[in-house]
Amino acid sequence: TDLSAFIARLPKAELHMHIEGSLEPELMFALARRNGVEIPFDSVEAVRAAYSFSNLQDFLDIYYQGADVLRTEEDFRDLAAAYFDRAAADGVVHAEIFFDPQTHTDRGISFDVVMRGLTAGMDEAQARHGISSKLILCFLRHLDEEAAFATLRLAEPWLHRIEAVGLDSSELGHPPEKFARVFEAAAALGLKRVAHAGEEGPPEYVHQALDLLKVDRLDHGNRSLEDPGLIERLVREQMTLTVCPLSNLKLCVVGDMAEHPIDRMLDAGLRVTINSDDPAYFGGYVNDNFGAAAEARGLDREQLVTLARNSFLGSFLSEDEKAAHV
Ligand code: ADE
Ligand code: ZN
Prior knowledge:
It contains 17 helices and 8 strands. By secondary structure, the chain is α/β, with parallel strands linked by helices. The longest helix has 19 residues, at 111-129. Bound molecules: adenine and zinc ion (ZN). Adenine binds at residues 18, 21, 56, 168-169, 196, 199, 247, 277-278.
């Protein structure tokens, strides 16, 4: 359609994408074969059929299992290269991607193998597609504070390739306050800070992300809408929210795309962006997310341009680089 062609042509930045969540079933099988890893599925179709989730934890269980095929530097490079090829096709010119080092170090894969592979993929994408990218190291919030500190120590030799720390995994029962000290230590190392908050968790978790983690950007943030004072604060502080429509649908954060709050967020004056979260698991890359939200909520071209513009304004590019894109 006209609108999908318009979306496809819009230059955009992607700010909320877990690289492990871009592992397509085809690559999962290829890596399983290459590494001699058993996976509990007979076919690509069987894998896709298993991607039916009733909440965040349901998804996380299968997502961490899928990541088990990632073993070598080449695996991480191939994973990143596949994402960037796909993102380039969607008009993404800059991507700030999450990775979950603890998912790998806890399986005996070294932090350095992960970093060498991902940064090789990033450098190739810059050369092949002209896509710039930055890495965001996420702490797994279901693990403890000491494990997060140990991960931050592993990251110290790589600070020149890491832009920010983030917080992901099981939100309920793992409030941001659990990681206040490790985020403070990350800030002291010069890292920026983001956190998943208000995806399943209450508005109080968003307040904690702002007050205790001092985040520069908020991932999801949907449940902020339940707290008018919080909305006002997010607008006043020009906080960027990285919203993920297809993820919200697949993880039952919304019951139906027709109920998605993206336009209410825009109307409230929030600096919202559209992102793919875990594209291989949720059925689409960034343009599919724009298209699904636009169709369900009747977004017009002006709103789509605002969303794309917000993606650069909310990025960690320099002011000069932002100005070149907006
Ligand atoms: N890890 C990967 N995707 C996630 C999400 N949407 N929420 C929390 N943790 C995640
Ligand atoms: Zn996410």
